[in-house]
Amino acid sequence: MTSTLFDKIWQDHLVSELEGGESLLYIDRIFLHERTGSIAMQSLVDQGRGIKNPEHVFCTIDHIVDTTPGRTDMTLLPSGHEFIRSTRKLALDFGIQFFDINDPRQGIVHVVSPEQGIALPGCIIVCPDSHTCTLGGLGALGWGIGSTDAEHAIATSTLKSRKPKNMRITFSGVTAPGVTAKDMILHLIGEYQASGGQGYALEFAGEAVTNLSIESRLTLCNMAVEFSAFSAVIAPDEKTIEYVKGRPYAPAGKQWEQAVEHWQTLKSELDASFDAEIVIDASKIEPCVTWGTSPEHVIGINDTVPDPLREDNLEKRAAMQRALEYMDLKPGEQANKIHIDAAFIGSCTNSRLSNLQAAAEQLKGKRVAEHVKAICVPGSTQVKAAAEKEGLDKIFIDAGFEWREAGCSMCFYAGGETFGEKQRIITSTNRNFEGRQGPGNRSHLASAVMVAASAVEGHITAPKQSGENNG
Amino acid sequence: MDKFTDHFGLTAPLMRINIDTDAIIPSKRMRSVSKHGLGPSAFYNWRFHEENVENPEFVLNQAPYRDASILLSGKNFGCGSSREHAVWALKEFGIKTIIAPSFGTIFYKNCIRNGILPATLGEKELEQLAESVANSGDKHSMIDLEKKIISHGSLEFSFEIVETDQKTLLAGLDPITQTLLHAKSIDEFISQDRSSRKWAHLD
Ligand code: SF4
Fold first, then answer.
1. Does A259 touch chain B (CB under 8 A)?
2. Could you please report the per-residue DSSP string of A406-461?
């Protein structure tokens, strides 16, 4: 046996090998949201096709929905309610599991999916959303697909795919206090480029990975797509099993025992061979932040903005120059002196309970700087309720943060709400593309703890030392 | 799906790396539950300074390239969000082929599903091709998918595309219909899986 963890999951789902090197794979779960899922369902209706197994198809409302308290179907995006209403209608017609706006299970798809036990170790789950790779944190294999492939998966419970190559990324050693899973993944992309994982399924391994909580593992896998990887997985362990146990859609009774028995076999064999290996000394990783418009534009908090003229590759140099201009930064500027206008904590990367707890720790008894507009959007209605039970909402509100209803919110700009033209945002999200958070917005990606600490100081800064690395 | 066999068209060099799908179709421009009406919004934030005010510096706004149907680009074209709208927008805009050293994985698949050719060409060759297009009066190139060749003037390059994807495009196959040919093996797999991995089934 020389299989990797990824090989095993793939093999378990292999219906047949097709001509030309493609595999036909069985898909355990399909998750949809109102932004892209609505189109997939509508298109199936238009073609007169049905759904193979409604029990395995889920849908939430997260992308366009308003996140201000007291929300309705109406959104700031002029036609937003049409997406919400058509999704609702189609979901009900199709008879799939639907988490509507006021459902206590509602939230960002990749937060809800582990939380409800929909994503399980060893399962394949797809969604017309690129951050489905998040679920690798549980040992589930998830990847993002287009709407046409979503139609395919809904209609047939299968997908055709070519098997990607295997890459293992080992974070050896132990991270310093205040260094989070977000810093680990930013560091990786910064070192090995935004296209570094292209063609590969990643396995994250090593002491610094096994040390992570499940929620932090989800953060780590979330940005595999920013590394251009097909997906990423982490071998399930006792922590994973503990996490999944008792969740609403998780197996129970005898089936739970069978599942656990299976999950315990889900690891790469000692002699498994990987097509590529990266080893990173986790103890050397600093709190990281992006300076540019690609997730590879990463620097440590004590570094300075790089000089494009020192980049030999001309295409990369041109991209850096464009980015500096867009971001209104100069080479040599110190990361921890960059002034900010806004701070955002939320998104499928960093909006889970442990992220909010760690961020609140930074905010306790403090106030956000006068000129900073700060917003916290819990990843799911359940996270929000749990946070409120602990009084975290009060800490955020007392510090000057807005406290919102669950959803994607200002992780991306759909034509509705934004922080305003050209605002500079420190953000716990995953994409710093031009205009991602609004017209001319300048997004600096960082951990939730760094966002909180920076909001207080009014400029980008390292989180205050804490024993936790969950932010 | 339409068949793609060969194509002769105007070629535009858009030689930036990591062009993401947010740039190809800004989320703001995805206004209805539809695959249509997206063409005018392709590269919206680059093509327009503000509503309907064109940016004259953007290559696709310049006279010879306005009607381009072949795009040349830097590596990792179509990275980022999985939105298939990026492909629908390009298609409606008139793009038939994108040539780049590499593509975002999801975007690449979306191209194949919609009859657009994502052709892979080495960085050096691509540079040569882009330079040749930029410097010559005639911006047309010829693409032969069967032979996997793109030619411009006297230049000729073989590009790469996975064989199954090449076949899918050539034949214009509908993926769901193709898969349903395997309906029996799928059902057999599922009934077998229901007993071996019972825990993974909710029905
Ligand atoms: S939170 Fe952001 S990245 Fe995550 S699914 Fe929503 S829009 Fe996409």
1. yes
2. SS-GGGS-SSS--S-TT-EEEESSS---TTTTSTT-EEEE--HHHHHHHHHHTB--
Contact at 8 Å (CB) between A161 and A231? no
H-type helices in A276-428, by residue range?
314-327, 353-363, 381-389, 392-399
| Residue carrying structure tokens 């294999």 | A141
Site of tokens 């209608």: A89
Rounded to an integer, what distance in angstroms lies between the CA atom of residue B39 and that of residue A240? 45
Identify any residues that bridge with A403 across adjacent strands, giving them in sequence order: A376
Beta bridge partners of B112: none
Two tokens, residue A135: 């679920």
Specify the pLDDT at position B94: 97
- Could you give the CA distance from residue A100 to residue B148 in angstroms, rounded to a whole number? 48
Per CATH, domain B6-172 is 3.20.19.10? yes
Dihedral, CA of residue A408, residue A289, residue A205 and residue A278, to nearest 10: 130
pTM score, two decimals? 0.96
Give the minimum alpha-carbon distance from A178 to chain B in angstroms, rounded to a whole number: 28
3-state secondary structure of B156: strand
For the beta sheet containing A124-127, the strands, ordered from the edge strand earlier in sequence to the opposite edge, are: A97-99, A57-60, A29-33, A124-127, A141-144
CB contact under 8 A, A435 and B26: yes
Is B82 at the interface with chain A, CB within 8 A?
yes
Domain boundaries, chain B: 6-172, 174-203
> Is any Cβ of chain B less than 8 angstroms from the Cβ of A286?
no
Each residue's pLDDT, cut to its tens digit, for chain A (471 residues) gives 599 999 999 999 999 999 889 999 999 999 999 999 999 999 999 999 999 999 999 999 999 999 999 999 999 888 999 999 999 999 999 999 999 999 999 999 999 999 999 999 999 999 999 999 999 999 999 999 999 999 999 999 999 999 999 999 999 999 999 999 999 999 999 999 999 999 999 999 999 999 999 999 999 999 999 999 999 999 999 999 999 999 999 999 999 999 999 999 999 999 999 999 999 999 999 999 999 999 999 999 999 999 999 999 999 999 999 999 999 999 999 999 999 999 999 999 999 999 999 999 999 999 999 999 999 999 999 999 999 999 999 999 999 999 999 999 999 998 889 999 999 999 999 999 999 999 999 999 999 999 999 999 999 999 997 655 677
Residue ranges and CATH numbers for the domains of chain A are 25-159+240-258 (3.30.499.10), 165-236+268-284 (3.40.1060.10), 288-457 (3.30.499.10)
- Which residues, judged by CB distance below 6 Å to any ligand atom, belong to the binding site of ligand 1? A 63, 108-110, 129, 131, 347-348, 408, 411-412, 429-430
Q: Within a 10 A sphere around the Cβ of B147, how many other Cβ atoms?
A: 12
Query: For residue B40, is pLDDT > 70?
Result: yes
